[in-house]
Structure prediction request, 294 residues.
Amino acid sequence: MTLLDGKKISNDIKDEIAAEVQQMKSRGERVPHLAAVIVGSDGASLTYVGSKVRACERVGFESTLKQLPESTSEAELLELVAALNADPEIDGYIVQLPLPKHIDEQKVLMAVHPDKDVDGFHPANFGKMALELETFISATPFGIIELLQRYGVETSGKHAVVIGRSHIVGRPISILLSQKGPAGNATVTLAHSRTSNLPELCRQADIIVSALGVPKFLKADMVKEGVVVIDVGITRVPDPSRERGYYICGDVDFEGVSPKASYITPVPGGVGPMTIAMLLKNTLLARQRHGGRG
Ligand code: GUN
Prediction:
């Protein structure tokens, strides 16, 4: 069994990006600038956004954190989005999800200028991804593809079962795995809450991507020998014995499944760090594409 070490690979990618930033600086160019918008004070979202901002510092990017109160109206948020779209200093930005219930998430995501949409959530970017055109690929699916590629995991002709049809992970990774090109050419089954024979489907899978959010859902008797397992789950499970009061648990029963797997991602330290590295990569791409402006 080989551990797909997202922490290590994400550090390699950050080193590559930092080297690129050094070169930009030595040419007298402006460095990439990422902004992150967070509305409210959800603990997990604050942690994720904090990690994204710290990662910017690590590679030499500029970063701006816009933290708005829970009571922010949709109109106020749309005003900030318009300001970020117009700001020539900002190469790319993200609006951290989920947003408070009184704000229409889709409306906000559609207001983000596609050229600054480093999350790849705008319909124009999602559509370009599906059509294999140049775009921003969402950080989590992009990170999974990068991880498979860097470990040389064969996907061509393999049967991949993706569990979960979210717009952020399940749906886009199902498209990417089926496309021509690196870490593609798989035959993909997209399973979801209405799938009737999931354990049987999983047992037929050469590759399983689980993006369900149910701790330890995937058990040893649901996988075949030699399976490749990508665990996207990051559920906070309450645990009073820990200082933080919780621990992070994946969708996969790692102890049971890992002895049968050929490759498997740990949680934490698998897909999570890759997501941040690919957001940085998209921000660098945004800077390079906006090159004329700065
Ligand atoms: N919430 C959970 N994952 C993500 C992500 O990749 N980007 C944003 N903006 N919000 C998220």
